[in-house]
Amino acid sequence: MSEPILTVDDLVVEYPKQGGWQAALRGVSIALDAGESLGLVGESGSGKSTLALAMLGLLPDSARVGGSVKVAGAEVVGAGAKVLNRIRGREIGLVYQDALVSLNPVRNVGGQITEVIRRHRPGTGRREARTLAVEALGKVGITDPARRFSQYPHEFSGGMRQRVAIAMALAAHPRLLVTDEVTTALDVTVQAQVLGLLTTLRSDSDMAMIVVSHDLDVVRGVTERVAVMYGGRIVETGPTAAVFAGPAHPYTAGLIASIPSIERPVISFIPGQPPTGQAGVSGCAFAPRCSLGRERAICHESVPGLLPHADPAAERRSACHFSGEMPV
């Protein structure tokens, strides 16, 4: 079997705070093969974006990082600028939540895309790079791409800017694309268009994709597998359809129950607040908010591992001492 395009092994990320350290990630491990799609979901502060930034070596210098992140076999943790510049763009691309942040407002969009192409495709001339950039704009659904090549970000709508950002991220044909809350600022119709575009591009190129989102409907619609994060850990993982149909962790069940529907128009919520990440917390981080473990001593004394749940062949895992009490 070929080597996974992404391997994250026991990743720990901590930030300095008030003379100590605050944990953002606590021993996260995932792997992703070519062509696979993975959703990362969880509340704000669960560690989703930190994990995404760690994959690209974009964590701040103040962060203390342990464990391993390998992209196409190259180690990211502790890597120097030369290695990171080779990995970014060529092996892994990133699309941010707000395209206005990732696009330079004083340069036309075509020039920004050609820069990516020439940096990661040595020997590509200006004329060829322009041709490839126009093609990239066309692939993401920008009409009249040759004309719009010379336009600036403010001349595009929000949805079109997001398409430009995707074109720029894909210009060097990365093997893995990471999208971080890519549809948050878009209306529902444009969201559907962007998500459909990402799905088509992934299937056409056998590219792996990670979708970081707090929107469970987005993840359910475009990913094959999902990893649910809480308190800097992955608490449940498995095929997206199976996890949504029968969550094995109480936190996952709470997230899914919070999605309003025609059958359940009343909005549900998980009581309490997410953990702060401070050191010294024992047991399951979700225990204070959990209906299964709030009164059980083991939940406050022992951190549950990410163990197989129900049918191991289904590749479902849950970090809960009592996941057997959850419906499958």
TrEMBL record:
One of its GO terms (biological process) is peptide transport. Keywords: ATP-binding, Cell membrane, Membrane, Nucleotide-binding, Transport. The keyword Kinase does not apply. It is a peripheral membrane protein. It comes from the Bacteria. One of its GO terms (cellular component) is plasma membrane. SUPFAM superfamilies: P-loop containing nucleoside triphosphate hydrolases. Pfam families: ABC_tran, oligo_HPY. PROSITE patterns: ABC_TRANSPORTER_1, ABC_TRANSPORTER_2. Residues 6-256 form the ABC transporter domain. Gene3D superfamilies: P-loop containing nucleotide triphosphate hydrolases (3.40.50.300). The keyword Coiled coil does not apply. It is found in: Cell membrane. GO terms for molecular function: ATP binding; ATP hydrolysis activity. Belongs to the ABC transporter superfamily. This is ABC transporter ATP-binding protein.
